[in-house]
Amino acid sequence: MFRMSNDAGPSVVASANFSRNSPLESPTSWRTADSQQEPTMDRQKKSQGDEAAIDKAITSRSVDQQDVPINASGHVQELERNFSLLSLAGVGLVVGNVWPAIGGSILVAIFNGGPPGVLYEFIAVSVCYWTVAASIAELSSAIPSSAGVYHWASVTPGPRWGRVVGFFAGWWNYLAWILGAASMASIFGNTVVQMYALNHDGFEAKPWHVFIVYIIATWLACAVVCLANSALPRINDFGVFAIIAGFFITIVTVAVMPGRGGRPPHASSSFVWTEWTADIGYPDGFVFLAGMLNGAFSVGAVDATTHLAEEIPNPQRNVPIALGLQMSIGFTTGLCYLVAIMYAINDYDALFSSPYPIAEIYRQATGSAAGATGLLALVLICIGLTLMGLYITCGRTLWALARDGASPRADLMGHVSPRLGMPMWSTVSSALLVTVLGAIYVGSTTAFNAFVGSFILLSSSSYLAAILPNLLAGRKRVAYGPFHMRGWVGFSINGVACTYMLVWFVIYSFPSTLPTNAQTMNYACLIWGGLTIFVGLWWLVGARKGYQGPTTTGGVVTEAQVGTTA
């Protein structure tokens, strides 16, 4: 069954000198460089295999003048462990940002069944993603590396295929986060433009209006992440407060104001829960399955906290807990928010003529442009904080790829700025990619839908690359950590997670409506295919020869665990 303990598994503690940025082709266990912190143990009980592996690691690497700490990824510890369990959970909650994300992207879901479709599809996809999250949490407990799924996918397929599978998984995961950042920046831009439009009659929003705000938001978020690294835990603590406070303010407002002061009343319960509305050319059953995309976009960022595993003490224990908190709070706030705004609708047809339906729902609920603007301001604050969290994740993900030689200009992308204490070039490069995507987007609903779909396809591909090989190998290729799903529980949850991602990968690639034209075509599969081809070309012409990839397989004691249980 599920197991969470303070025992990180069959690990030893080892000391060695290693050159900076050297991946360790090593055993599954290490110790810190500071011999004074070594826990008491019976050295006679060490296995000969552990001793031989440690000797090999010590003699096979260049020696510096002083000992340096090695983390669970097998690399020199370069980043400060600034995050606590609370601030790490805050990153997950802020990056996941379920209720603002599902409100900002509700345009994707409103056509797929109306209010009942939105609600039931969200519940169904959340259950599916709980199995994905549990599978990710188990791997993060075994191998708490900033590389995340990239590291795990390099290990679970075994030595023959791990190198290439991990390479593709790492790039799929990174590109998914880039498209997630582009999606959030577009929601931010649309929110600002609609706030202005609500208060200026006759204003006609243009795509370039959204694009300008998109660019400003992108680079402001990037600047904060680069220049305020030590303050990020406190910013994320504020983000938790903003998301929770904004949630309560919003649902109280939309629940209380309809029906008062001459405003139209709440929608009926039958409208919210049973009146299925879908006229997009597909059978109702398929409409339901395809409509789960909006929920998947809002709850699908399950690996966000794993990319900060090297910036928190005791990550084997704390990362799975933070992930569980992220999923629990995200589902609760997301479902309550959806119920509240569905009851606030009094003119359903008006939503289809609005370029940003959530603004129209808020206007109907409050009966005024000022009230809707205030509620949109809460969404704007949350989305802005989410953008910062996304650049934390994007930068760390590219940095983890680069330090193993998997990216172009790995020397630059894998560099941690001594002055800023963070991977600046990988973060700035991520912002440049999001800027390029913004030039493609320029306010197009079709492009936004493609970004959302591509985020799901790419992230699911990376998760599958890590989870499925482990399942097919009998779950035997990883030395599990404190969070371990034992026996049939682990097999069942991994199996459901993989089945969901494989089946819905196909479903999410279908066009949004029938018959299909250039505006309603689903370009997500085209984006996924094109990006995968580019990654394959980079593997063939650039990375294949020098790239080794991560090799540690779990059961690791990091320098942060010795004498620390925070």
Automatic annotation (TrEMBL):
GO terms for cellular component: membrane. Residues 40-49 have a biased composition (Basic and acidic residues). Keywords: Membrane, Transmembrane, Transmembrane helix, Transport. Its main location: membrane. GO terms for molecular function: transmembrane transporter activity. Residues 1-51 are annotated as: Disordered. It is a multi-pass membrane protein. This is Choline transport. It comes from Colletotrichum chrysophilum.
